[in-house]
Amino acid sequence: MSxxxxxxxxxxxxxxxxxxxxxxxxxxxxxxxxxxxNGHNIVIKDSIAKGQRFAVRDIAEGQSVVQYSCPxxxxxxxxxxxxxxxxxxxxxxxxxxxxxxxDPLETIYREEFVSKTFDGYRRPDGTVxxxxxxxxxxxxxxxxxxxxxxxxxxxxxxxxALDFPNTDGIVAIPNTEGCGCASNVQIDxxxxxxxxxxxxxxxxxxxxxxxxxxxxxxATLYSYLKNNCAxxxxxxxxxxxxxxxxxxxxxxxxxxxxxxxxxxxxxxxRSKCAIEHLVVxxxxxxxxxxxxxxxxxxxxxxxDKVIIGKGSAILSEVPEMVGTEHILMRRMRNYDVITEFxxxxxxxxxxxxxxxxDMSDNLVPENKVGGLVNPCIKSLGAIxxxxxxxxxxxxDYGERLSKRGLHIMQGPGNDIESVTGMAASGxxxxxxxxxxxxxxxNAIVPVIKVSSTTELFRKMPDDIDFDSxxxxxxxxxxxxxxxxxxxxKLVLAVASGEKTKSERNNQAQFQVWxxxxxxx
Length: 520
Known about the structure:
- The protein is of the alpha/beta class.
- 32% of the residues lie in helices and 20% in strands.
- Strands 20-21-19-18-22-23-24 form a seven-stranded parallel sheet, with helices on both faces. A four-stranded antiparallel sheet has the order 2-3-6-9. A four-stranded parallel sheet has the order 14-13-15-16, with helices on both faces.
- Helix 9 links the parallel strand 18 and strand 19.
């Protein structure tokens, strides 16, 4: 490598006017010179690994350290060309009680996106599914393995692709909930998630399996559904293991029920549906420093296009919003939304304090190795998944979205718990960015993996669906907007039935965020 380097070949500056740090795209040695143009240059003063940040101008003590046009730390004195790390910047504090209200722009729908369609499954309640699953719902940990066995034996018995081509799968959602806990918010949250999976537009038929004596048995769940006017309109059956006489008899009974129901479930076929029926869940996991430069903004660009097409999206992972609250609040529709948002942020801070847990533990060691120096810089990159439109509301974990547009859902950074919650809230497709690589999917919702680098895309070709790393190339021919169009085409193809890598690998995770558990 030449000792004299051009800026766009070796580093990225997100906003060349406002940002005072850059991210290295390659390993840099002390003494190298980077030419900025117009006679200006930077002499690298430290060894800087790929993905780490360095100052592009002197940042005096007490001044803000800025990336994405936003402060993410306070300088302890950083000279131009020096590595930016946890030892020479201090954390910033956000006063949640400050008035961040502004008037977010009205969402202007654009016909070029409103007119886009996908082939989905129309449901009697007006929602549209991107998949058509027969779902086995165990109402507790005690019934979970039996439900899994029924699903497993049913899949062995039928060749769905040949016999029932409109049925995408037979899947169970085993869990660790439903009994042995206080009968308050933990049970309520679990019942809400089950209710919204049972009534999810990606589900065409359901068999609900209970043991019989658990807190969330048939009587409890049926009453909950009835009281919430949520009794399913799709083919629905119930099976109680104790009543049937044990495991084997329950499995045989379940197989008989499925055999009778599959023809009915399969009778629903795909038809043209407007993009307004898409609800995109957004997730990031195993992030690196490039996630906030490529994959997350790419997802955000696609989300904006879905929303201006009258669709919806969900942004969650509340611990990964720490330090960016003021940015998000300025996008919120009204004071009611701001108040609800403050409440969920304060809930996290309060429970962390009571448990003597540091919210910064969301920043795992591999994040730091990947160049994320503090929680705020991770958050600044993470929230770009939500695009730029107005935030219309705040949802509780697993609460069903009831109006179009972008919403924030109360939820953890834990990938599987977060995606489960967004699916319960109505997401019928999920876009998931990753920098280090991750393999997880979801039981009923297709998950599209987006790599932050081409290196990762090539390393894990059987798990990654889309490469946003081309945005890092020095002579990249794509703008973010162009690549966002390409990504939207993939989203619509997957919504129409194209299988994601996680689906092909049978990654069908389901895990409820237990109420009272501080998941970061």
